[in-house]
Amino acid sequence: MQQYFVKGKAEELVTITDKDTAKHMFSVMRLAEGDEVVLVFEDGIKRLARVVSSSQQQLEIVQELKDDVELPVQVTIASGFPKGDKLDFVTQKATELGAAGIWAYPADWSVVKWDSKKLAKKVEKLEKIAQGAAEQSKRNRLPDIRLFDKKADFLAQLAAFDKIFIAYEESAKAGEMARLAQELQAVEANQKILFIFGPEGGISPKEIETFEQAGGIPVGLGPRILRTETAPLYALSAVSYAVELTSRPD
Amino acid sequence: MQQYFVKGKAEELVTITDKDTAKHMFSVMRLAEGDEVVLVFEDGIKRLARVVSSSQQQLEIVQELKDDVELPVQVTIASGFPKGDKLDFVTQKATELGAAGIWAYPADWSVVKWDSKKLAKKVEKLEKIAQGAAEQSKRNRLPDIRLFDKKADFLAQLAAFDKIFIAYEESAKAGEMARLAQELQAVEANQKILFIFGPEGGISPKEIETFEQAGGIPVGLGPRILRTETAPLYALSAVSYAVELTSRPD
User: Fold this and answer.
1) CA B236 to CA B243: how far, in whole Å?
2) Of A94, A237, B87, B235, which is least packed with CB atoms within 10 Å of its CB?
3) Pick from B20, B139, B58: which is nearest to B49 by CA?
């Protein structure tokens, strides 16, 4: 069944005010009185809703649904600003794969320079991509999209995480490949996990030092060199496999 | 260091005959006498090679390298023909993630119809994409690319695999999520594993039956609905995580 995210709290009678959502519901899908869809408000609970009036874009809530497909841990990925439209791609795929946050920061070796005006526009675009992907993959939550203007603002966030992993190619080369699995076997429900990725050129030695000082653990993601836009997908899949598919002793 | 795949067996003196490779080496990278690159022949061994003559496109082998980044199991992914250019994307990413084979077949619910002429052209294009991705991710082997004209030809291949997994959305819904992890914990080195994916519309009930009769095991890839081009990336990441990153009792 078609699913839509709606801003705000759930009310018994809902008027769709977001233009894109209203257009998709009543122009594209041509929903009519009595048709049912799933609405997801900011509390993350899916609710079955029935169209009361298509001209007034009104729906009534029928019942709460139990379906919850969120990862049991909250995973944020943070990429060094990559070239071109790679963040669009990362946003769509990372949303499908369950990311709680999709962030990017100006890394030492980022080639692109984005000013705050450009960043604001890009956030808006990525939020739309994330919403589309979250609706299609039936998520309960929209990921938090943040593009940091200054690296210091990104660094100021690190203390909020329970675990920080630094995806570091040299860790793969050094054969430190068991580290991520060891750490993931010890994570607990609802913990906040951050994965930091470099841009195309990688993470600079100075950045590695900074991230490590903030508690970051360098980890390898297998022996093959992954492109900057592929590594986050590996990380999210690995977390899902470790915490959703693997039955653990605890 | 730049890496190139070369057809055939390794010889002490190598003449580059492939036009695209020669162009990249001597026009794009402007390799000159004495410059070193890594060559990978069909035996999958990386060899350090030194340019002897750029005008004659000749290199000499310096030494064998020990570097082997191939997955310890051979994973083939088979997608129902998807829409548009999705196979291009899947080919690039699956190559980075270590796929031994990237196949596609005409599924019951595939929307596109490709005739054999179109398929031959498409294989050629995908092989180029795979070669570029394999060189960048420093693979030892190029994946085997196959697009099956008839589903029967695909089905005839199933007996060659040690394990067949069917990525089936209903398995995720039914909560059968531990199955893949249980099976992956039991795989042995060099086993041949096949993952079968449906096109956008999914795998038909008749196909599920056929794949199951051939020994296929329906598995879920987490509770979120993944697009047809995202599911293979999850599967390959999960296999890498399970067999390369997780230390196992055996």
Assistant:
1) 11
2) B87
3) B58
* Whole-complex ipTM: 0.94
The residue extents of the domains of chain A are 3-64, 74-245
Helix, strand, coil in percent for chain A, rounding step 5: 35, 25, 45
Which residues are registered as beta bridge partners of A187? none
**Residue A2: C-alpha distances to residues A75, A164, B197 (Å):** 26, 35, 23
User: What number of residues does chain B have?
Assistant: 250
Beta bridge partner(s), residue B53: B58
pLDDT per residue of chain A (250 residues) written in tens, 0 to 9: 899 999 999 999 999 999 999 999 999 999 999 999 999 999 999 999 999 999 999 999 999 999 999 999 999 999 999 999 999 999 999 999 999 999 999 999 999 989 889 999 999 999 999 999 999 999 999 999 999 999 999 999 999 999 999 999 777 666 677 899 999 999 999 999 999 999 999 999 999 999 999 999 999 999 999 999 999 999 999 999 999 998 654 4
Pick the CATH number of A74-245 from 3.90.1010.10, 1.10.3210.10, 3.40.1280.10, 1.20.950.20: 3.40.1280.10
CA angle B166–B169–B172, rounded 5-degree value: 100
Distance CA(A18)–CA(A41), nearest Å, equals 13
For A112-231, strand residue ranges (E) read 144-147, 163-167, 192-197, 216-219
| DSSP secondary structure string for all residues of A122-156 | HHHHHHHHHHHHHHHTT-SSPPEEEE-SSHHHHHT
Please check whether residue B189 touches A, CB under 8 A.
no
Q: Which two tokens stand for residue B99?
A: 């796929």
Closest chain B residue to A183 measured between Cα atoms?
B246
Yes or no: say if B211 and B160 are a contact pair by the CB < 8 Å rule.
Answer: no
Per CATH, the architecture of A3-64 is what?
Beta Barrel (2.40)
Fold agreement (A3-64, A74-245): no
Amino acid identity, position B27: S
B227 and A138 within 8 Å at the Cβ level: the answer is no
User: How many Å apart are CA A195 and CA A78, to the nearest integer?
Assistant: 6
Look at B136 and A225 and tell me if their CB atoms are within 8 Å: yes
Which member of B98, B177, B234 has the closest CB to residue A237? B234
